[in-house]
Every structure is written in structure tokens, then in C-alpha cells.
Design a protein that fits this description.
Blueprint (H helix, E strand, L loop, with lengths): L9 H4 L24 E5 L2 E5 L8 E7 L13 H20 L5 E8 L11 E7 L15 E6 L5 E5 L8 E7 L5 H16 L8 E8 L2 E8 L5 H6 L8 H12 L3
Antiparallel strand pairs: 1-2, 2-3, 3-5, 4-5, 4-9, 6-7, 7-8, 8-10, 9-10
Amino acid sequence: MANSHLHFNTSIGVKKPENIRNKQQACPFCARDQLTDLIAVDGPIILLKNKYPVLENAFQTVLIETDDCHAELSTYTKAHLHRLIKFGIKHWLEMEETGRYRSVIFFKNHGPLSGGTLAHPHMQIVGLHDIDYKEKVTHEMFEGIVIAAVDGGPRFTLSTKPRVGFYEFNIEMEDSSYQESFSEYLQIAVHYILNHFPFKATSYNVFFHHIDDKIYAKVVSRFVTTPLYIGYGIPQVPNNLEWMAEEVRRIYFNM
């Protein structure tokens, strides 16, 4: 039976460790010899069952990105970046292909305003048994000003019709084969948010979507969510999108 809301198990939620703000909390992902329920391992990259499955009627996994607790996606070497994103996409699509889930979501939290609880770089792949996230996806949320593109390959855009509002970067590629510029555009979006954003930014999310034979990554800078969206579901579009798109081109592509 289809559902519109995920149910959160609070009795499990209160047990989850948190060290984004609580710096005294030990990092469970650093104790690699104590990790259990491993699904796949590629060197420092580990996919395992989530020890705290707070979402009911779902299969939750965690993708530990690296063995370096202080690393961050924007600073990964190109070799590790491609290794990681290829690994994540592979296992995400494989979960989709099992047919066990109504849909499978793949996302990343980073920073105190992202909704995450652990600072160690990680992503999550979650199989939803009775919710299809694609029902709430529209093509226009991936439309935008083109920042960079590869002929016949990935495109990097800044949303002109953002889903939540303000600044959302989109990266897209065909799902038939992995292309390195997809991950490199993704890394640039994250690096820009953390290092060159017009407002001090410490948090972001990455949301992957698999729609109509394409893979999209939506990179969203996170601040306190606007009350107009919370209260009314009305996204806001800033008037300096063209400036920001040109600024990203100037910093990363004018060589």
C-alpha cells in the first residue's frame, strides 16, 4: 500500500550518537573493526546496514565515504571522488533493480543544518517499501542556468525553479555509463558552497534522483529554512542567479 509519510521511530532515534555538535562523542565510523552487517567494501569505502534504522517500513544503509574522519567531499582527490561516486551509484541502482522497494533514495548530509548527526563523511541509501519519491519530482526542479556542460554528456546548472528555494545546483548524466565530469561538477558545487558562497555556509545536502534514464544530483546549501516554504510550501527564487552562475564559471572554469 502506498503511503505519503515516513514514520520515524523515536525510541531508536534517541539512541543515535551525535557528534556534529557534541564533540566529546566518539565516532562509531572510526572504529572500523567494530562495524557489523557490512554489505560491500572497497578499500576505505564501506556500505553497511544502518545500526539505528529510525525509518519504519524501510531498509536503511550507510555508505562510509572514507577512513578519514576529518575529510570532506569537496577536498577528495579525483581518484577517491570517482571511486566513491561510482561505488554509491552502483549499489543504489542495484537496490532499485531488486524490485523489493517502491523506490530507493540516495542522499548525503553535511554540517549542523543538514539534518545529519555524525560528522564522519557518509551518505545513506534507503529502500522505501511504500513510498515512491519520484511522485513528487518534476522535471522543472532540474532546469536552470547552464554553468558547464560536456557535449553529449553531463550538465551542471543552477536552478531557476528550485524545489525548496534560493540556491540549488543540479548535475545530470545519462544512466547508461558513469562519466567523470558528473562527480567533478558535484565536487565543484560543494566546494563553492563551503568556500565561496556569498553567505557563510557550513552545511549542504546532496540528493540523487533516477528519472527517465538520467541520474541527477541536486546540491542544496542549507540555512534555516524560510518560513514561507515551511508554512505554505512556496519556494523563493533570488534575483542574482545569473551572477552566481557566472561567479562559479569564473572561479572554476576560466582557465
